[in-house]
Amino acid sequence: MDVSIVGAYNTKFGTFVKRDRDAGTVEDLKTFYELLIEAGSGAISDAGLEAKDIDAIWVGSCSPSLFVNQEHVGPLALEIDPEGLLFKPTTRTEGACATSSLAIYNAAYAVASGRFKHVLALGVEKMSLLNTPGVTHALSCCSYWPEEGKHGMTFPGLFAELGLAYQQKHKLTDDQLRVMLAHVSALNYRNGIQNPLAHFGAGSLPDKNQLVTAEAILNLPDEGKGSNPMIAPPLRLHDCSLITDGAAAVVLTSSDNAKSNFKHAVELSGVGHTTDRMMLNGRKGRLHELQATRRAVELACTEAGIGVADLDFAEVHDCFTINELLCAEAIGLSEPGRAGFDLMEGKFDPEGDCPINLSGGLKAKGHPVGATGASMHALAYKQLTGQPIGVAAKENAEIAMTANIGGSGVTNCVSVLRRIQ
């Protein structure tokens, strides 16, 4: 695709609220609106443009009506610069956790059509104003409600089903799988601690408690303070991503314009966007793998003209630790049933064959659902242009992949990103 990213910005991710449990009050320390404006203005500035240069805006936000009582969020992007952006077209996308990858793709298609020259695509979510049951309900609305959410099936429960199917398919014992998943958490915690934008960054719980090895996580008690309780077998607390606030944005233009007029350019060389059936019952017999993700990888790599061996690093959708293993296999970084073993052998470490989640991933960086896809693209752009935020990719990294998934393997967005400037 003849479209490139020429600017990117990622806000700090975290829980930006102050709770007084005795009084029952919640103070918003960084609002949905502030996050959106910070990310959008930051990306425009990073590209060396002014707001008036932006021709259109796509905004990804998964469930703002439930999280912050706000719908019709596209027009809010004008508040980035009310004068410079007045009357510019805005569009909102939604695709569960792949929401802002869809914003980027639609923005890229608009540029590729020739309709617009410079387009802003951003993602934003403010989750922490709700309590845990409120967040659980909001996210459950992204499942197939009649059969899943309505009957109390949560996303930990849905991904637990994938984990159990994977375990059965590959004949892993409970202990084997638990050790593998602990290694996933530890890798992401180690990387996240070095990311100044991460929710679980320096000084966070994993850092203070030195949860940077699988052994440290496996040694946590099952109950009580500092425990790692079972949430939905085989998934425990430290297998689950975070309730996070944050936003990220990128600026897109044609690759020809990017090479002629911008200091840095990372081409969206290949895109794979596939959709699987939403209900798990519709995918019986194949829950042990992400078939639609694999298909998206094939489409993206074919369009980009690359093979998996060409990847210098990947950002994958580790909403739950089991999904990091499933993504690694869907991409082709590991053979079926081998991702956990490969990870334990260091294949996906920063110094490994293909580092995974140098940012810390959703597990440590955080998972503001509507912002996750944009964050993956923004941080990959920074890596590829020699401006790493946190752990740096291997020297002279040129090609990266982002694999962003909405729902329980339903909406699959895979991008091949290539540095061209």
Characterize the structure shown.
The chain is an alpha+beta fold and 421 residues long. It has a domain at 3-131 and 243-253: Peroxisomal Thiolase, Chain A, domain 1. Helices cover 34% and strands 18% of the residues. The protein has helices at 32-46, 64-68, 99-112, 132-140, 155-169, 174-193, 205-208, 214-218, 255-261, 291-304, 321-331, 339-344, 361-364, 372-384, and strands at 3-10, 17-20, 25-28, 56-60, 90-93, 119-125, 230-232, 235-236, 246-254, 266-275, 313-316, 399-406, 411-419. The strands form 3 sheets. Strands 5-4-6-9-1-10-13-12-11 form a 9-stranded mixed beta sheet, with helices on both faces. Strand 12 and strand 13 (411-419) form a beta hairpin. Helix 3 packs across helix 14, helix 6 (174-193) crosses helix 11 and helix 10 crosses helix 11 (321-331). The longest helix is centred in the middle third of the chain and has 20 residues, at 174-193. The protein is globular and about 55 Å long.
Overview in brief:
This protein has helices at 32-46, 64-68, 99-112, 132-140, 155-169, 174-193, 205-208, 214-218, 255-261, 291-304, 321-331, 339-344, 361-364, 372-384, and strands at residues 3-10, 17-20, 25-28, 56-60, 90-93, 119-125, 230-232, 235-236, 246-254, 266-275, 313-316, 399-406, 411-419.
Q: What is the terminal-to-terminal distance?
A: 16 Å
CATH evolutionary superfamily of one domain: Thiolase/Chalcone synthase
Main β-sheet, spatial strand arrangement: 5-4-6-9-1-10-13-12-11
- Spans of at least 5 consecutive residues whose pLDDT stays below 50 are none
The CATH topology of one domain: Peroxisomal Thiolase, Chain A, domain 1
The shape, in one word, is: globular
Number of DSSP helical runs: 14
Query: Based on DSSP secondary structure assignment, what is the total number of beta strands?
Result: 13
The succession of helices and strands, N to C, reads EEEHEHEHEHHHHHEEEHEHEHHHHEE
State the share of residues found in helices, binned by percent: 25-40%
How would a crystallographer describe the biggest sheet?
A: 9 strands, mixed
